[in-house]
TrEMBL record:
Compartment(s) of residence: Membrane
Bilayer-spanning residue ranges: 157-183
Signal sequence interval, chain numbering: none
Gene Ontology CC terms, in alphabetical order: external side of plasma membrane
One BP term from GO: regulation of T cell proliferation
SUPFAM superfamilies: Immunoglobulin
Protein name: Cytotoxic T-lymphocyte protein 4
Amino acid sequence: MRLTNIMEHSRFLVLGFICLQIELGFQDIQVFQPRFLEANSDGEATLVCSHDHTGHAVELQVTIRKTNQEEVCNGTYNSTTKPFQTRARFHCWIQPGEGNVSVTIYGFNSSAIDYYFCKLERVHPPVYQSGIGNGTLIYIAGKKHPSSVALDLKDQLFQVTLLLAVFAFILLIYGIAITFVHFHSKVSE
């Protein structure tokens, strides 16, 4: 009887310890990236993704995604990895560093101007951790400047807001007309 009580308490103690380890281990990685980045006229841009991960990760993965979640490039590395290349939609050169990962992306053109997000994941050893940066607007030298892209977005937002306001006004007039007709028919009876 006493042995079973000790076993049961030990089980709860181990379970509590595991839960505590999991809770403490799931702290996200903070990822920092510049707000704007200008690609050169050859269509090359180097995005530096800085992070606060100081643990002893055996394996980290970096993924660069566009606003629409399209994967641009990714790669897995560890503390002994030398720079390496990947091929996805763009040709990428990934260079791990102390507290950052530099990703040089080749093949930008005017249709590629967009926000790019850097995602870092601690893959091994467990416990899994991840973090996503706030995004970098990458544009090409001599093409649209970030302020003009922001103005385009503001113009689109204004047009949508104006359209919704007109639609709401029409619905308001329609509601008033229906109420007036209904009230007039009740008064006539």
